[in-house]
Specification:
Blueprint: H1 2-8, H2 10-29, H3 33-39, H4 44-65, H5 83-90, E1 99-100, E2 107-108, E3 113-115, E4 120-122, E5 127-129, E6 134-136, H6 141-168, H7 179-182, H8 191-227, H9 232-236, H10 258-267, H11 274-285
Antiparallel strand pairs: 1-2, 3-4, 5-6
Helix pairs in contact: 2-4, 2-8, 4-6, 6-8
Length: 286
Protein backbone atom coordinates (compact mmCIF):
# COMPACT_ATOMS: atom_id res chain seq x y z
CA UNK A 1 0.00 0.00 0.00
CA UNK A 2 2.75 2.45 0.97
CA UNK A 3 4.77 1.62 -2.16
CA UNK A 4 1.75 2.16 -4.39
CA UNK A 5 1.20 5.58 -2.85
CA UNK A 6 4.80 6.56 -3.52
CA UNK A 7 4.61 5.25 -7.09
CA UNK A 8 1.42 7.12 -7.86
CA UNK A 9 2.90 10.39 -6.65
CA UNK A 10 0.12 10.80 -4.09
CA UNK A 11 2.44 11.66 -1.20
CA UNK A 12 4.53 14.04 -3.30
CA UNK A 13 1.48 15.98 -4.45
CA UNK A 14 -0.11 16.05 -1.01
CA UNK A 15 3.18 17.18 0.60
CA UNK A 16 3.58 19.98 -1.92
CA UNK A 17 0.00 21.16 -1.44
CA UNK A 18 0.10 21.01 2.36
CA UNK A 19 3.47 22.79 2.51
CA UNK A 20 2.22 25.52 0.18
CA UNK A 21 -0.83 26.29 2.27
CA UNK A 22 1.04 26.05 5.58
CA UNK A 23 3.55 28.68 4.43
CA UNK A 24 0.68 30.83 3.11
CA UNK A 25 -1.15 30.53 6.43
CA UNK A 26 1.96 31.55 8.37
CA UNK A 27 2.35 34.65 6.21
CA UNK A 28 -1.29 35.59 6.79
CA UNK A 29 -1.31 34.95 10.57
CA UNK A 30 2.08 36.43 11.44
CA UNK A 31 2.75 40.16 11.78
CA UNK A 32 3.37 40.78 8.06
CA UNK A 33 2.10 43.25 5.48
CA UNK A 34 -0.70 40.84 4.61
CA UNK A 35 -1.90 40.79 8.21
CA UNK A 36 -1.73 44.57 8.53
CA UNK A 37 -3.61 45.05 5.26
CA UNK A 38 -6.37 42.80 6.57
CA UNK A 39 -6.55 44.71 9.84
CA UNK A 40 -6.88 48.00 7.94
CA UNK A 41 -9.58 46.55 5.73
CA UNK A 42 -7.38 46.76 2.62
CA UNK A 43 -8.15 43.38 1.08
CA UNK A 44 -6.86 43.87 -2.47
CA UNK A 45 -3.26 42.73 -1.89
CA UNK A 46 -4.19 39.77 0.37
CA UNK A 47 -6.80 38.65 -2.18
CA UNK A 48 -4.32 38.92 -5.08
CA UNK A 49 -1.69 36.98 -3.16
CA UNK A 50 -4.19 34.26 -2.26
CA UNK A 51 -5.40 33.98 -5.88
CA UNK A 52 -1.80 33.76 -7.14
CA UNK A 53 -1.07 30.94 -4.68
CA UNK A 54 -4.27 29.19 -5.78
CA UNK A 55 -3.25 29.56 -9.43
CA UNK A 56 0.15 28.03 -8.71
CA UNK A 57 -1.49 25.03 -7.02
CA UNK A 58 -3.90 24.54 -9.94
CA UNK A 59 -1.05 24.72 -12.45
CA UNK A 60 0.93 22.26 -10.34
CA UNK A 61 -1.85 19.67 -10.52
CA UNK A 62 -2.42 20.39 -14.21
CA UNK A 63 1.20 19.63 -15.05
CA UNK A 64 1.39 16.75 -12.59
CA UNK A 65 -1.69 14.87 -13.76
CA UNK A 66 -1.85 15.54 -17.50
CA UNK A 67 -0.49 13.31 -20.24
CA UNK A 68 3.05 14.57 -21.04
CA UNK A 69 2.89 13.06 -24.52
CA UNK A 70 2.98 9.30 -24.08
CA UNK A 71 3.61 7.25 -27.21
CA UNK A 72 0.46 5.11 -27.34
CA UNK A 73 0.73 3.20 -30.61
CA UNK A 74 3.06 2.66 -33.53
CA UNK A 75 0.70 4.51 -35.85
CA UNK A 76 1.47 8.21 -36.21
CA UNK A 77 -1.74 10.11 -35.57
CA UNK A 78 -3.02 13.18 -37.30
CA UNK A 79 -3.14 11.81 -40.83
CA UNK A 80 0.60 11.48 -41.18
CA UNK A 81 0.45 7.96 -42.63
CA UNK A 82 1.43 4.50 -41.50
CA UNK A 83 4.69 3.29 -40.00
CA UNK A 84 5.86 1.86 -43.31
CA UNK A 85 5.28 5.16 -45.08
CA UNK A 86 7.06 7.11 -42.39
CA UNK A 87 9.97 4.68 -42.26
CA UNK A 88 10.43 4.86 -46.04
CA UNK A 89 10.37 8.64 -45.79
CA UNK A 90 12.85 9.09 -42.99
CA UNK A 91 15.33 6.39 -43.96
CA UNK A 92 16.21 8.38 -47.05
CA UNK A 93 19.27 10.63 -46.95
CA UNK A 94 21.04 10.88 -43.60
CA UNK A 95 18.07 10.76 -41.23
CA UNK A 96 18.57 8.07 -38.54
CA UNK A 97 16.12 5.18 -38.62
CA UNK A 98 13.33 4.96 -36.11
CA UNK A 99 14.04 2.53 -33.31
CA UNK A 100 11.81 0.34 -31.20
CA UNK A 101 11.79 0.78 -27.46
CA UNK A 102 13.34 -2.18 -25.70
CA UNK A 103 10.86 -1.89 -22.83
CA UNK A 104 7.40 -1.14 -24.25
CA UNK A 105 8.25 -2.39 -27.78
CA UNK A 106 6.69 0.66 -29.44
CA UNK A 107 8.32 2.53 -32.28
CA UNK A 108 9.84 5.72 -30.87
CA UNK A 109 9.40 8.98 -32.79
CA UNK A 110 12.49 11.14 -32.96
CA UNK A 111 13.22 12.96 -29.66
CA UNK A 112 11.13 10.42 -27.71
CA UNK A 113 12.58 8.48 -24.80
CA UNK A 114 11.42 5.74 -22.46
CA UNK A 115 10.99 6.93 -18.87
CA UNK A 116 12.04 4.28 -16.36
CA UNK A 117 9.82 5.84 -13.67
CA UNK A 118 6.62 6.23 -15.70
CA UNK A 119 7.43 3.07 -17.70
CA UNK A 120 6.22 4.77 -20.89
CA UNK A 121 7.81 6.39 -23.92
CA UNK A 122 7.32 10.16 -24.01
CA UNK A 123 7.36 12.39 -27.08
CA UNK A 124 9.97 15.16 -27.04
CA UNK A 125 11.08 13.89 -23.66
CA UNK A 126 12.64 16.59 -21.49
CA UNK A 127 13.03 14.96 -18.06
CA UNK A 128 11.15 13.18 -15.31
CA UNK A 129 10.48 15.70 -12.57
CA UNK A 130 10.22 14.28 -9.02
CA UNK A 131 8.69 17.59 -7.92
CA UNK A 132 5.55 16.95 -9.96
CA UNK A 133 6.03 13.15 -10.09
CA UNK A 134 5.46 13.17 -13.83
CA UNK A 135 7.43 13.45 -17.04
CA UNK A 136 7.87 16.76 -18.81
CA UNK A 137 7.29 16.18 -22.50
CA UNK A 138 5.73 17.53 -25.66
CA UNK A 139 2.22 18.07 -24.29
CA UNK A 140 2.90 19.56 -20.85
CA UNK A 141 6.25 21.33 -21.27
CA UNK A 142 4.71 24.78 -21.86
CA UNK A 143 2.41 24.25 -18.88
CA UNK A 144 5.42 23.28 -16.78
CA UNK A 145 7.11 26.52 -17.83
CA UNK A 146 3.97 28.51 -16.92
CA UNK A 147 3.85 26.77 -13.55
CA UNK A 148 7.48 27.64 -12.82
CA UNK A 149 6.84 31.28 -13.72
CA UNK A 150 3.77 31.60 -11.48
CA UNK A 151 5.48 29.69 -8.67
CA UNK A 152 8.47 32.03 -8.85
CA UNK A 153 6.20 35.08 -8.63
CA UNK A 154 4.51 33.62 -5.54
CA UNK A 155 7.82 32.82 -3.87
CA UNK A 156 9.37 36.22 -4.58
CA UNK A 157 6.25 38.00 -3.34
CA UNK A 158 6.34 35.89 -0.17
CA UNK A 159 9.98 36.85 0.39
CA UNK A 160 9.09 40.49 -0.11
CA UNK A 161 6.19 40.27 2.35
CA UNK A 162 8.32 38.69 5.08
CA UNK A 163 11.67 40.40 4.61
CA UNK A 164 11.30 43.78 2.95
CA UNK A 165 10.77 45.81 6.11
CA UNK A 166 13.27 43.61 7.97
CA UNK A 167 16.02 44.65 5.54
CA UNK A 168 15.06 48.31 5.78
CA UNK A 169 15.14 48.31 9.58
CA UNK A 170 17.90 45.70 10.11
CA UNK A 171 19.97 48.03 12.32
CA UNK A 172 17.15 48.94 14.67
CA UNK A 173 14.66 46.07 14.84
CA UNK A 174 16.08 44.55 18.07
CA UNK A 175 16.25 47.70 20.18
CA UNK A 176 13.32 49.67 18.79
CA UNK A 177 9.91 49.11 20.41
CA UNK A 178 8.35 49.94 17.04
CA UNK A 179 10.21 47.19 15.24
CA UNK A 180 7.42 44.69 15.73
CA UNK A 181 5.15 47.02 13.81
CA UNK A 182 7.69 47.68 11.04
CA UNK A 183 8.70 44.17 10.03
CA UNK A 184 7.44 40.66 9.70
CA UNK A 185 9.73 39.47 12.53
CA UNK A 186 8.86 40.42 16.09
CA UNK A 187 11.68 41.28 18.54
CA UNK A 188 12.25 39.43 21.80
CA UNK A 189 14.15 40.35 24.96
CA UNK A 190 16.40 37.30 24.55
CA UNK A 191 17.36 35.07 21.64
CA UNK A 192 15.39 32.21 23.17
CA UNK A 193 12.20 34.23 23.38
CA UNK A 194 12.86 35.66 19.93
CA UNK A 195 13.20 32.17 18.43
CA UNK A 196 10.05 31.00 20.18
CA UNK A 197 8.11 33.96 18.84
CA UNK A 198 9.46 33.75 15.30
CA UNK A 199 10.37 30.11 14.75
CA UNK A 200 7.50 29.38 12.36
CA UNK A 201 8.21 32.48 10.32
CA UNK A 202 11.91 31.67 10.09
CA UNK A 203 11.06 28.16 8.94
CA UNK A 204 8.75 29.57 6.28
CA UNK A 205 11.42 32.03 5.16
CA UNK A 206 13.96 29.22 4.83
CA UNK A 207 11.60 27.13 2.74
CA UNK A 208 10.61 30.07 0.55
CA UNK A 209 14.24 31.12 0.08
CA UNK A 210 15.43 27.66 -0.95
CA UNK A 211 12.53 27.09 -3.34
CA UNK A 212 12.99 30.57 -4.82
CA UNK A 213 16.56 29.79 -5.87
CA UNK A 214 15.63 26.34 -7.18
CA UNK A 215 12.68 27.68 -9.17
CA UNK A 216 14.70 30.58 -10.54
CA UNK A 217 17.45 28.24 -11.74
CA UNK A 218 14.93 25.84 -13.29
CA UNK A 219 13.09 28.64 -15.05
CA UNK A 220 16.32 30.14 -16.39
CA UNK A 221 17.59 26.76 -17.64
CA UNK A 222 14.31 25.92 -19.37
CA UNK A 223 14.08 29.37 -20.95
CA UNK A 224 17.56 28.91 -22.41
CA UNK A 225 16.83 25.38 -23.64
CA UNK A 226 13.52 26.45 -25.18
CA UNK A 227 15.23 29.35 -26.96
CA UNK A 228 17.59 26.91 -28.71
CA UNK A 229 14.93 24.16 -29.15
CA UNK A 230 16.78 21.63 -27.04
CA UNK A 231 15.55 19.37 -24.26
CA UNK A 232 17.23 18.66 -20.94
CA UNK A 233 17.80 15.05 -22.01
CA UNK A 234 19.39 16.11 -25.31
CA UNK A 235 21.56 18.72 -23.57
CA UNK A 236 22.84 16.31 -20.93
CA UNK A 237 23.14 13.14 -23.06
CA UNK A 238 24.04 14.53 -26.46
CA UNK A 239 26.95 12.12 -26.96
CA UNK A 240 24.67 9.08 -26.46
CA UNK A 241 21.75 10.10 -28.70
CA UNK A 242 21.90 8.59 -32.19
CA UNK A 243 20.59 11.61 -34.08
CA UNK A 244 22.90 14.07 -32.24
CA UNK A 245 26.16 12.27 -31.54
CA UNK A 246 27.38 12.73 -35.11
CA UNK A 247 26.59 16.47 -35.13
CA UNK A 248 29.17 19.08 -34.29
CA UNK A 249 29.35 20.38 -30.74
CA UNK A 250 27.42 23.59 -31.42
CA UNK A 251 25.10 22.12 -34.05
CA UNK A 252 21.43 21.60 -33.25
CA UNK A 253 19.32 20.23 -36.13
CA UNK A 254 16.10 21.47 -34.50
CA UNK A 255 17.18 25.08 -33.89
CA UNK A 256 15.23 27.55 -36.06
CA UNK A 257 16.37 30.73 -34.32
CA UNK A 258 15.37 32.20 -30.97
CA UNK A 259 12.16 33.89 -32.13
CA UNK A 260 10.86 30.91 -34.10
CA UNK A 261 11.79 28.50 -31.29
CA UNK A 262 9.92 30.56 -28.69
CA UNK A 263 6.94 31.02 -31.01
CA UNK A 264 6.71 27.29 -31.74
CA UNK A 265 7.02 26.39 -28.08
CA UNK A 266 4.44 28.79 -26.65
CA UNK A 267 2.01 29.24 -29.55
CA UNK A 268 2.00 26.04 -31.65
CA UNK A 269 -0.02 23.30 -29.95
CA UNK A 270 0.35 20.25 -32.16
CA UNK A 271 2.38 17.09 -32.53
CA UNK A 272 5.52 17.84 -34.52
CA UNK A 273 7.13 15.30 -36.84
CA UNK A 274 10.72 15.96 -35.81
CA UNK A 275 11.98 13.56 -38.47
CA UNK A 276 10.92 16.04 -41.14
CA UNK A 277 12.49 18.98 -39.27
CA UNK A 278 15.70 17.01 -38.83
CA UNK A 279 15.83 15.99 -42.48
CA UNK A 280 15.16 19.53 -43.70
CA UNK A 281 17.74 21.21 -41.47
CA UNK A 282 20.48 18.65 -42.03
CA UNK A 283 20.00 18.74 -45.80
CA UNK A 284 20.17 22.55 -45.74
CA UNK A 285 23.41 22.50 -43.74
CA UNK A 286 25.15 20.20 -46.22
Amino acid sequence: MVRSLFRSGFLVRVSHTVLTWIVTLILFLHNTDLRRCEERGELLLPALFFLLVLLSVLLYFTVSLMDPGFVLTDTVKGGQGSNEEMESMITQSSTPRLRRCGYCLLQQPMRAKHCQTCKRCVRRFDHHCPWIENCVGERNHRWFFAYLLVQLLVLLWALHIALWNVVLSSNTWISSPKADRMSGISPGTTWELWLRANGFLLGALTIVGVFSWVTLLLLGCHLYLVSINCTTWEFMSRHRISYLKNCEDEENPFDRGVFCNLWDFFCICRTVMWEQVYKKNTSNSV
